[in-house]
What we know:
Elements: H1 18-47, H2 51-75, H3 82-114, H4 118-148, H5 155-186, H6 189-213, H7 223-233, H8 238-266, H9 270-297, H10 301-326, H11 340-373, H12 380-435, H13 438-442, H14 451-469, H15 476-481, E1 502-509, E2 514-520, E3 523-528, E4 531-535, H16 538-554, E5 560-564, H17 570-573, E6 583-588, H18 592-601, E7 615-619, H19 622-628, E8 633-638, H20 654-662, E9 664-675, H21 681-694, E10 699-705, E11 708-717, E12 723-724, H22 725-733, H23 738-746, H24 757-762, E13 765-768, H25 773-781, H26 792-799, H27 806-814, E14 824-825, H28 828-840, H29 854-859
Parallel strand pairs: 5-6, 5-8, 6-7, 8-9, 12-14
Antiparallel strand pairs: 1-2, 2-3, 3-4, 9-11, 10-11, 10-13
Helix pairs in contact: 1-2, 1-3, 1-4, 1-5, 1-6, 2-4, 2-12, 3-4, 3-6, 4-12, 5-9, 5-11, 8-9, 8-10, 8-11, 8-12, 9-11, 10-11, 10-12, 10-14, 11-12, 12-14, 20-21, 21-25, 21-26
Amino acid sequence: MEPTASLPARSGAPGRFLPLLLILFIGSGCAALIYEIVWLQLLALVVGSTAISLGVLLGTFMGGMCLGSWLLPRLISRSRHPLRVYAALELFIGIIGVIELKAMPFVADAYTVFAGGGWTGIMLRAVVAGICLLPPTLLMGATLPAIARWIETTKEGVSWLGFFYGGNIVGAVFGCLWAGFYLLRIHDMAYATYCALGINLAVALLATMLSGVAEYRPVVSDARSSAASRRAADPWAWLVYVTIAFSGFTALAAEVIWTRLLSLMLGMTVYAFSNILAVFLVGLGIGSTLGAMLARTTARPRLALGVCQILLAAGCAWAAYNIAFSLPYWPINPSLSTSPWFTFQIDLARCCWVVLPSAILWGASFPLALASVAQDVEDPGRLVGGVYAANTVGAIAGSLAFSMFIVPAFGTQVAQQVLIAICGVSSLFMLAPACIGLWNAQRGETARANVGASLALFASLFAVCAMVYFVGPVPWVSVAFGRFSADPNTTNVSNPPNPGDRTSLYVGEGMNVSVAVTKMGDYTYFHGAGKVQASSWPQDMHLQRMLGDLSALIAKKNEDVLVVACGAGVTAGSFIPYPTVKHITICDIEPLVPHHVAAQYFSAENYGVVDSPRTTVVIDDGRHFIRTTKQKFDVITSDPIDPWVKGCASLNTVEYYQMCKDHLNPGGVVSLWIPLYESKLESAKSLISTFFQVFPNGIIFSNDTKGEGYDAVLLGTVDPAKIDITKVQALLDSPAYAGVKQSLRDVGIGTTVGGDEAVDLMATYAGRAQDLKPWMQETIDAGNINTDSNLRLQYLAGMWLNNYEQTEILQDMLKYYSFPKDIFSGSDQHMTMFRNTLESEGRARFSAAGAADSAAVAAAPAK
């Protein structure tokens, strides 16, 4: 039934008020996106950041909105003024938003008590998500159906509903960018929540004021008889709901795929994710506006809806082509400019190039679907609620199906082929009936086949099949080198000089991350997040051994070891030669990493640690595992990927370090890898200062070459560390530790002239928390300590990932250096060797008579 007739005259929304309603929806959408970002971020800290956890959270969030849109017209009488209902919804959303913020610590404590693994653990996460997210999202989903009751179901009225939907999305775009680039970067989640609350209160107040001057007299009809008459008048309307459900399915499926692939090439920072989401939302907003204008003029909205779906297949094919064959090879070198502003512009341009065409078509589908099912004497709330619910159900299914099953099982190439095929199938629900004259028959016209339309449809479907066939795989260079795909050799700091052509050995697209293994010359590299994360290159091997051996040798005992993040397994493998190590637990978020990368390609370097009978592999978010495990450890090493990667800041907060500290046995050690490359002084200070807030006796060991910075190890102990170099060397010289000694020598530790392994290893010392207090004070005063409430590090590090100031950062720390006479001890011979080695490595700035007092050094740092 085409929406050609008008409703009987009634007091609906006068034209002069409609722009004000649009402003209300812009504000509502802005607040909703801020809440979504904050709530999902807070809950991910509690239930984990695995794909399953995030899928549960997102599914619950969208499910609540779906249920709210469907329930409101059935629970709230049509006689109530829509603006007053809308105002009440906004007010309660704001109140619940503040309650969520205040109650989250209690939720976290309760979850920790009952958390477990397997299906029981997943169900508990769903319960937590439901308790926290369903109340506010039910209200959010109800806002559009509530205000829709002030609009008539005429063509003009339906088009205004499309404008409101578009306005809501425009507000969401602003909320996304405002939260990602300002509120959370400068302030914290509490500040962002109160800003959203202020918007809610302003919207509620404006809606209440409007309700006092805008009269409302609803057209009252019996709901059951109305529904029956609709089904009798238009028995094929269900096809529209199926089509808009498929549209939602493909939209969220595409967002999952494209976010995954684009973030690799943009750098997986919080800003890259904000860019991708913002462009997607901008497209939806533009599309819904265009669709609303078309719904006002077209006599055949169902045909237009079908055309949108067939064009979506082309849009998805366009995106697949650019991701596989074009975008990775654009001549872009991000390191040419360190300005985040220029990075933002080029990232935004690439996102628009790939995402915008399809997003516009998905946005246009919603108002066209509304126009396709709108009828006379229709409750606008039920109309909008039904279409919105169908679209959201499809979106939930698409998001979960592709993120948890299709992409991990078959990869992004097959996933994009399936996406294009579903778009083609979706178009059939609208175009096939048009071709056989079904829609015309419903209008009382002759039901004859439209030969021209049928031929066009078959040609389109043939084109869809061709699009599916020509979808290419994600290039391995994109998975391996990310934003440097056009020229991998420009990653001159995190990779060694190129001794030969690099070849791909393995590419895996897991549920959580995509990984790759490459070979270059004699060295093997493990790639994650679009960059090298571990390798057999000497300097990387040196760091990975340092991380394990420093921890094992400084801890009072080392029987139980936890390694957070497997990488190439070299750090975990460092514990294999120790006869005293009884159990090694490896925790990694992605199954591909330990079971494929570490086990198959780095078994020689990691001594087959994954297959060792002493090793247990746990697949979980490291933070979630430490929060929920009842075990305690002698050594905890944390080797996550770079802090600029979105989500990794949660493994570098005060609260996370405190959890690690609480899971230490007496005399235990926590060690952490930190990169100094791809960083700026303020982000390095934030990370180091945060660690030393929890471990005031902490030490930093540098993996550098004679003062030229690269990366480092932070080591924390509960009590001040006391390291007897002579005793350590004696232990290494014992027969039982022959394997440990050899593993150190294999990476160049102990091979210097006159050097012992213990001397060389400990001479990587670069400072301690006590001496670095003046260096850290500015960071503390600026509020840049990384906590669960601000996750400051991911914003600082993400802003400056194209900076290569590793040497400047190290030298800035060494200004506060003093000889650690109260940490290290040993024989005169060993202490002399230790001092000489420190000087040769560019560390020491002290006189031959002895070490300078640390307070004096801090007051007058040497140049």
